Amino acid sequence: MKSIIFVLSIFTVLLLGSLSAPLAFAQIQSGGVSSDTIPKGSSWYVGEGLKQGDFFSYSMCHVDYKECVQFEMDMWIKGDIQTGSETKWLAEVVVYDGSKIIVGEMELGKIAPEPTGGTENLGIYRGAFKSSVAWLSAFATSDGSSGGKGPKEFASISWGKIGNIGGEQVIPKAIETVTVPAGTWETVVVSWKTGGATSSVWILDDFPFPIKASTLTHVSSGIPPPEYVFELLDYRENVQQSPFDGIIPTEDEFKKLGCNTDMTKEVTLKKTSRYFGYQLVVLYGPEDLVQGCQMQWLIKFISIYSDVEFLNQVQYDILVVDDNLNPLRSIADEEGRKFLYSPSGLATVDMIIKEEPGVANYVIWIYGLAPDGIVPSTVADYLEIPLTIFASEGSSTPDTTPVIQPPTGIPSWIKNNAGWWADGSIDDDSFVQGIQFLIKEGIMSVPS
């Protein structure tokens, strides 16, 4: 009998290379952890211990919002709100997104504290919160009845399975002490794999939401981009007065200036970069760009060989330059980054127009194609886009309507445009925009 077992063991070694291989394979699919501070039987669910007066501040990003551009979300649990027959949590929320401040409210469920409603201006941020900070409510909720998943034990070998293709088990994998801006705690690391890459969320027992997360998007090949990343910046209990009193949303400031806050992309251009390395489709809005107001870019980085092939892992920046192409302003620098990054080649960028009235030379500067944090090996290329900036006169009193003041005579930039068009520095479309401006402002009349 012993000889048979020995032969079978040798056969296993020949097939798998190691007697421990089958055991190692099993460990990939199963988890379960415990310690003196987290004994067996300890369980957790999203929203555990959530109460009125809790204040949370998270730094976060999600792939569905500008390909995981970071923003800060602060949330204060104000109390209960009744919606039909359901009682929910009502939270006041402030989002700091680059130069923008968004203020609103968010409704959270009681069984699973996922956003189920709130003010319209927080829509995209509610979605990011639901799919990141509150995402584990797909596996762990306060109540196992009425469709809820119920609390999950840390000692459990699995909390469930990722639903997408190639998804594996969501498992409590390890106990780890982590430090984030809000503090240092002993946490349970819950992990899963998609496409061969490991994603992790760090959970603190008896705390409503995870402390931090670093997850990756499922891809069939190449380096997976982040799906969502977050960490807890601050947490306070028993905050009885709104911590957001006196915070003015940026949109209100724009309205005082008479800004058009509709970011509909009204202008489109399609051009090849200066050295013909890239093809760009650029949309921006609003149509009339006003000093002190906001504008938004939508940039598509496309192969010069195919109009339908998006370029991946684009490192770029939006610059304002002088007539000699010397940078005067960098959007990446204003956001505290070395460059802007687009994993998919489809980028959305918000910015405040700080340039003086007249023509501003905006440049989409392309460093090259490379994973985030790796310097591209190719020579940089760029696309220069001269745009007209109007002046705005803000109101000093709430009762006065701000007035946008375009020039009354023929502006100097129109004359410059004509010269640049004549020597081939700008294309026909840019020159025609100048003529359209003269007609629109009544400076030039066209007989019927």
Number of helices: 7
Structural class: mainly beta
Question: Whole-Å distance between the termini?
Answer: 106 Å
Number of strands: 24
Shape: globular
Average pLDDT confidence is: 84
Low-confidence stretches: 1-28, 395-408
Relative helix content: 10-25%
Oligomerization state of this entry?
A: single chain
Percent of residues in beta strands: 35-45%
Q: How many structural units, i.e. domains?
A: 3
Rg calc = 27 Å
Report the major sheet: 11 strands, antiparallel
How are the strands of the largest sheet arranged? 6-5-4-3-2-13-12-11-10-9-8
Describe this structure in words.
The chain contains seven helices and 24 strands. Helices cover 15% and strands 39% of the residues. With 448 residues, the chain is mainly beta. The strands form four sheets. The chain has an eleven-stranded antiparallel β-sheet, with helices on one face. Helix 6 packs antiparallel against helix 7. Residues 1-28 and 395-408 have low confidence and may be disordered. It has three domains: 30-236, no CATH class; 250-406, Sandwich (Immunoglobulin-like); 417-448, no CATH class.
Tag the structure with descriptive keywords:
7-stranded mixed sheet; 3 domains; mainly beta; Immunoglobulin-like; 39% strand; 11-stranded antiparallel sheet; disordered N terminus; 448 residues
